[in-house]
Specification:
- The chain has 115 residues and is mainly beta.
- 0% of the residues lie in helices and 60% in strands.
- The protein has strands at 10-16, 23-31, 36-40, 48-56, 62-72, 78-88, 96-103, 106-114.
- Strand 7 (96-103) and strand 8 (106-114) form a beta hairpin.
- The protein is globular.
- The relative contact order is 0.22.
Length: 115
């Protein structure tokens, strides 16, 4: 990781939700040498702060990742996000992170690629 930092670090873009009504998804993730921090959908209205990330490194080619984030919707109600995904193409610059995205009770598939 010395050259690029942690493989989940970076800016990611893609979408989540049902195929007939996908929602744009942006991740801005940072590595401080111990943990991943960052923001989901950075911006004034939809931003959620990453509260925790755990990894299962048992398959070196595709890590399992669980991410939790919290934010507020435009009316001020809490928004919780739970992500259960897989990080693939770990050795490549254009990594793929995909799996299941749950946000305030709505569940759907997600896929993001590192920008």
């Amino acid at each position: 990781f010395a050259q690029f930092g942690h493989p989940l670090k970076g800016q990611w873009s893609g979408q989540w939700g049902p195929a007939d009504n996908p929602k744009r998804l942006l991740l801005d993730l940072h590595w401080d040498g111990k943990s991943i921090t960052g923001t989901v959908n950075p911006g004034a209205e939809d931003a959620a702060t990453v509260k925790g990330v755990t990894f299962d490194y048992s398959d070196p080619s595709a890590w399992k990742v669980k991410l939790q984030a919290e934010g507020k919707d435009p009316s001020g109600k809490p928004v919780t996000i739970a992500v259960d995904g897989v990080l693939e193409n770990i050795g490549a610059y254009s990594r793929v992170f995909h799996g299941t995205w749950t946000q305030s009770g709505q569940k759907g598939d997600f896929t993001v690629t590192r920008n």
